[in-house]
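Changelog note: in this version the structure field was regenerated for every chain. One regenerated record is shown below for reference.
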Amino acid sequence: MIQSKKKWQVHTPDEAVVQTLQDGLQLSSMAAKILAARGFTTVEQATKWLHMDEQAMHDPFLLNGMDEAVFRIEQALEEGEKIMVYGDYDAGATRF
């Protein structure tokens, strides 16, 4: 087996925050740990994120190359081409 030269840094979220989120949102401990690990520390923050509306979302056309990507996808659809979408395992997962 190939040994990794990288050292994993596993961060453990604050248990008090996890308990607050779990109790306040009626979540499993795993879901509360995920929210805490993503930086949510209050029920209000997590609720706002979990129940966001369309107004809170960013315009996807602000991403570089989006106009060209949409044009190419539309072209492929019009011409009956196959489209393959791929990404890494956490595509889109960012810390805020």
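Spot check on this record: The chain has four helices and no strands. The helical segments are 15-25, 29-37, 43-50, 66-78.
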